[in-house]
């Protein structure tokens, strides 16, 4: 886990084996020898993907451990991490390395942060990083539980942090991206923070982002 703001924030990553056998890593977490060995047993790490400019803390370690991997930056991250060499910036069109296997769309409209949401066709899975967070309220007590509830990040109603919502000046752009994502008809929704939704992926995504209107 990593510390975000002032409390522990468990973070999840996802791994996809592409058609060429290479591994596509979404939202890389802290790397250690055990994790690296597990991945190397699955295939060569070839694509490292940061879904938004907050999820960059461990990219340097991953790039050092897997020097042949290509780094993909979301909007705004290349300027923030000039110490890293990014091979491409993520946009609405998938990179040729995963086109036809993984779709994507950039959620624009916030002056604070833009996030790239992905859809793995073969498994029917949408990957959402910070846009939807659903922590178990039973594990949050005292002021922390109250704060997380006020932020709108707990239980089935877990959503986008309220301070991020307030930065969304162009909700029309956000709704356009959501329309694209819902058209994928995801069966599952995998999120970086919190309990994985058990409901239909499209329904969970629509519920989490209903504040967009």
Biggest β-sheet strands, sense, barrel? 5 strands, mixed
Provide the structure class.
Answer: alpha/beta
CATH 2nd-level architecture: 4-Layer Sandwich
Order of strands, main sheet, comes to: 3-4-5-6-7
List SSEs in N-to-C order. EEEEHEHEHEEEEHHHEH
CATH class: Alpha Beta
According to CATH, what is the topology? Metallo-beta-lactamase, Chain A
Shape: globular
CATH superfamily: Ribonuclease Z/Hydroxyacylglutathione hydrolase-like
Query: Any low-confidence stretches, pLDDT <50, length ≥5?
Result: 1-6
Fraction of residues in helix: 25-40%
What would you report as the Rg, rounded to the nearest angstrom?
A: 17 Å
Total domain count:
1
Our count of helices gives 7
Average pLDDT works out at 91
Number of strands: 11
Straight-line distance between termini: 33 Å
Proportion of residues in β-strands: 15-25%
Question: Overview of this structure, please?
Answer:
By secondary structure, the chain is an alpha/beta fold. It has one domain: Metallo-beta-lactamase, Chain A. Helix content is 26%, strand content 21%. It has seven helices and eleven strands. The strands form three sheets. It has a five-stranded mixed sheet. Strands 8-9-10-11 form a four-stranded mixed sheet, covered by helices on one side. A two-stranded antiparallel sheet has the order 1-2. The two termini are 33 Å apart.
């Amino acid at each position: 886990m990593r510390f975000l703001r002032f409390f522990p924030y468990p973070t999840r990553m996802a791994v996809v084996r592409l058609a060429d056998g290479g591994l596509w890593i979404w939202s890389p977490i802290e790397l250690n020898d055990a994790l690296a060995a597990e991945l190397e047993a699955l295939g060569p790490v070839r694509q490292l993907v940061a879904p938004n400019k907050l999820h960059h803390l461990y990219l340097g370690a991953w790039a050092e451990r897997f020097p042949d991997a290509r780094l993909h930056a979301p909007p705004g991250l290349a300027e923030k991490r000039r110490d890293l060499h990014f091979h491409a910036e993520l946009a609405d069109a998938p990179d040729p390395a995963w086109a036809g296997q993984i779709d994507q769309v950039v959620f624009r409209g916030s002056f604070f942060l833009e996030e790239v949401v992905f859809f793995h066709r073969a498994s029917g899975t949408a990957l959402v990083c910070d846009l939807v967070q659903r922590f178990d309220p039973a594990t949050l007590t005292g002021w922390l539980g109250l704060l997380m509830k006020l932020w709108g990040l707990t239980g089935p109603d877990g959503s986008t942090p309220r301070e991020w919502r307030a930065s969304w000046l162009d909700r029309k752009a956000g709704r356009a991206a959501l329309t694209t994502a819902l058209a994928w008809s995801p069966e599952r929704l995998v999120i970086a923070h919190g309990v994985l939704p058990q409901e239909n992926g499209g329904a969970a995504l629509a519920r989490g982002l209903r504040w967009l209107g």
